[in-house]
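Q: Got a minute? One more chain.
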Amino acid sequence: MAVVRAVLLAVIAALLLGGCSRPPDRALRFGLSEAPANLDPRYATDAASARVNRLLYRRLVRFDARERPEPELATWKRLTPVHYRFHLGRQGRRFHDGSELTARDVKATYESVLDPANGSPKRATLAVIKRIRVADPDTVDFYLSHPDLQFPAYLTIGILPAQSIAAGRPFQDHPLGSGPFRFVAWPQTSRLVLQRVADGQRVVFLEVRDPTVRALKLLRGEIDMLQNNMPAELIAYLRRQPGVRIQEGPGSNFTYLGFNLKDPAVRPLVVRKAIAHAIDRRAIIRYVLAGAARPANALLPPAHWAGDPGLRGYGYDPARARALLQQAGYGPGHPLHLTYKTSSDPLRVRLATVLQDELGKVGIAVKLQSYDWGTFYGDIKAGRFQMYSLSWVGIKSPDIFRYVFYSTAVPPAGANRGRFDDPEVDRLIDAAGRADSVAAQARDYRRVQARLLAELPYVPLWYEDQVYVCRAGIEGYRLATDGNYDGLQWVHRGRAGAGDGQGTLAAQ
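A: Always. Here it is, folded:
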């Protein structure tokens, strides 16, 4: 670690000799480790796209601090167990081309997701919708195939103009919404320009994959802000620099190891349990992540209304891991060989290397394969892997379990990328959907999480903290537990030179 830190500091120091070259315009520049892939909210599944789309589009529903649905565009009433009426308010009703957002646009957006010919990965979650009817320009009715108390929480897809949907507009790279930011240009994959509707402030998203280069650009004034995906020693270095400010706060993003359960090497549960016992999560959090994470036992954090603080996961026990591998027929003369895929992000590669070492100590020979984000994510969605690691970000509603673990939610119908097929999990998810009270639903979802922890389609790792870094004089950003970019609605340049000097801010 000391060698890595010394090399890092030497590289930064050498590069900084080139001087400072702050861009002349007043656009705010936000550094990303990965560029968004798709600006159509009906199809976007990567984290960067989801976060940017929140800025471009308004949704019917958002979530409060306890992850309960609340109105964004619309209020609602449950008229019968299978009939919900949504009434549009007056805020956020103007698309960026000047046209009005009406109930017709809501209907068109959700019907396009439900059309199997369109292949939306969001369709499985919304399969409970039987029919949609426009009552008047401000009112839309949803009729369900069966009762579901959490139905409003599913309606978080950004609303698109019906006329543009019909005309076949390529929203994926020419978005049109009614959110707090409008689309300006996407001249390169690595450079996306948005404009804040309220005051015309432009924000440029710049993909800079290497975290050291991102830090360098921040110090030189070529980037004003960056968030997450920074190794601990780089954050520590930035903390000591004048003119840099840091916000940190607890996060809800869930990092895990996933498996292809059609692969004979990882299909046996005893193998996945051995892997779980071989990982010293607390040591990794302490020494690699500098304490900026909390161990996880389930996708939902314990504080979530449907979370389960009583879950007890797999403790670090290398002797137990070796014994389980022996049960599976592996040992010193016959080691288990696995291939582990990850992205080329340096922090993810480092974590993969640490996991490779820990699994090697119990007799699992791991071959690492790192790819650029597009190739890596494409392989994961297609099921081309034995083992991989990823993070779920921005999870609010427990309907995520149907999307990720239901047996029929295999891509493109959902995100069951590991081809997990467990009738008991399907039954519990269905029971939660039919529950007649929130308390009963929470109980059923806790049973889902207990079953998943027992069957291990994922090995839960940790919930990573959120870290936001900016230049002094950049003010107003609000850090969110899920790492979204909503804080860009309020961020601005302060007085020239105001706040210069090092400092760390608590999360707001």
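A: Confidence is low (pLDDT under 50) at residues 1-7, 9-24, 496-508.
Q: Perfect, thanks.
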